[in-house]
Amino acid sequence: MVGPLRPQFVLFGSSIVQFSYSNGGWGAILADLYSRKADVLVRGYAGWNSRRALQVLEQVFPKDAAIQPSLVIVYFGGNDSMLPHSSGLGPIDIIPERNRTNESCRIYSDACLEVCRELDVKAVDLWTSIQRRKDWSTACFTDGIHFSAAASKIVAEEILKVLREADWEPSLHWKSLPTEFAESSPYDPPCGDGTTLNIADHSVALALIHWGLKRQLRYNYACWLTAVNHLITLSSEKIVQLSLFQALGISFVLKDSC
After folding, report:
1. Which tens digits make up the pLDDT trace of 59-83?
2. Which domains are seen in the chain, by residue range?
3. Catalytic choice (81, 146, 152, 202)
4. Which of 16, 34, 127, 189 has the highest local Cβ count within 10 Å?
5. CA 139, chain centre distance (Å)
6. Annotated catalytic residue: which of 64, 143, 167, 193?
């Protein structure tokens, strides 16, 4: 155990969770964004369905643990939503890929959303969100099942939308959580005006830009200004045109170099 204690976010699911830190994954996006605000823990098990997960549920989430997670994001379904095999076994190795269809996934997704409404649990309708993109079938998957970086960005945006809109106390949205060691120090990087710069909040802004989370930036105009000020502080060029900013359609003309 290390301190200071932070809120714990647990990602619990199948391969979509286990692989969420690779290939620009949504787990990596959340971990980057919350890097000084919360600990994002991965409990992902490729090939598992929800029945398999129930067998170890109390081991993953012991009721007598001294520290309980502040947020659990559950992602099972890809291996549950396949049509049943005649043997009753599963989930993956013996089941032909043709049995996992978009229609069977829709039926499973609708059922999950209905259960979440009954239990008053927040849910994300990814079946619909991903297919809003016209080229979703080719752009959003690496192998027809697992997410590409483009799809992971959609997943992260939808999760952040839920966290922003939820009426929880305290709020778990990144903007509402305190930044660890955000106070100024004479040992922070020096600026040209004789002061020092604590880059804690700047790093959050740059994480949003790095991952191209345009919606989060639009909702948080102050974060735009933070990112701009950070670039002005660190840049010695008259014109700053970083590729990450160009992806968002932004360029800045600086009056004076630092």
Report:
1. 999 999 999 999 999 998 888 776 6
2. 8-165 (3.40.50.1110), 200-253 (no CATH)
3. 146
4. 16
5. 18
6. 143
